[in-house]
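Deliverable D2.4 — example input (structure tokens):
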């Protein structure tokens, strides 16, 4: 707690620390300002490099886009979701969106800053995921990128490291340091999101899915499947960093109903849901 308070003080005192509003509220009404210590351009550029390296490594291991049918499904779903991001932030339409399926047994999916995505075959196969449920997964991960949760987490890390570095210089502890590229990968793949971030991604995710013509109630069935998988003694990595099933499902039920008119409109015609 003391380090966190010092970090906030450091952030407040640094000229590069900005309070920003990353997305518009949308129908779900996500409205929270965020403190950023690093620029969007820097984070996105680092994410792009990290992503390219990771996909190259997956290619070497013969784990990249091995199942043509899975790849086609995921790309088609993502292709319908991405245009809906304009509701929350029009600049996202200019991102270099990219998605791949990795042949890995884990139940996992993620989206790096700037729209660099991956979904693991384990999630598709173990959950027997429908297209609507895959849209819930990818919509959730896309929402993390739209809200720049990775950039926010990196900013917190940088503020904390600066604070600890100052304390270390005074107390002889030494300095903490980590490259931005490694930080991007770490916060995307390894570190847990806060409950606030998860709720935001859930709510924006169901709206993206609904606007794209995918049933938002699929987010509920997805998490019910997750709960069963966890109860069977197989807690997925993707699940381990997320809030409790009961709280999440109750919130999703409420917000799925809130965006149901968008889904109905999207199913009614191509001009609807905008």
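Example output (designed residues):
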């Amino acid at each position: 707690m003391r380090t966190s308070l010092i970090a906030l003080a450091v952030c407040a005192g640094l000229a590069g620390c900005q309070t920003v509003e990353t997305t518009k509220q949308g129908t779900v009404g996500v409205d929270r300002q965020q403190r950023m210590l690093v620029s969007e351009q820097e984070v996105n550029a680092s994410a792009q490099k990290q992503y390219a390296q990771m996909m190259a490594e997956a290619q070497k291991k013969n784990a990249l886009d091995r199942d043509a049918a899975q790849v086609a499904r995921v790309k088609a779903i993502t292709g319908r979701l991405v245009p809906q991001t304009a509701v929350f932030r029009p600049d996202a339409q200019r991102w270099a969106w990219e998605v791949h399926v990795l042949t890995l047994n884990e139940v996992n999916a993620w989206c790096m800053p700037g729209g660099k995505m991956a979904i693991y075959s384990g999630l598709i196969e173990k959950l027997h995921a429908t297209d609507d449920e895959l849209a819930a997964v990818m919509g959730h991960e896309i929402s993390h990128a739209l809200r720049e949760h990775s950039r926010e987490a990196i900013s917190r890390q940088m503020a904390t490291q600066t604070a600890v570095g100052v304390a270390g210089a005074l107390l002889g502890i030494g300095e903490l340091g980590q490259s931005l590229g490694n930080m991007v990968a770490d916060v995307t793949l390894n570190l847990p999101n806060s409950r606030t971030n998860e709720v935001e991604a859930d709510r924006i995710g169901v709206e993206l899915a609904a606007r794209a013509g995918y049933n938002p109630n699929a987010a509920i069935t997805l998490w019910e499947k997750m709960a069963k998988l966890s109860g069977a003694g197989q807690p997925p990595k993707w699940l381990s960093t997320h809030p409790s099933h009961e709280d999440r499902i109750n919130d999703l039920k409420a917000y799925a109903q809130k965006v149901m008119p968008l889904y109905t409109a999207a199913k009614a015609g191509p001009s609807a849901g905008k």
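The two ends are 44 Å apart (CA to CA).
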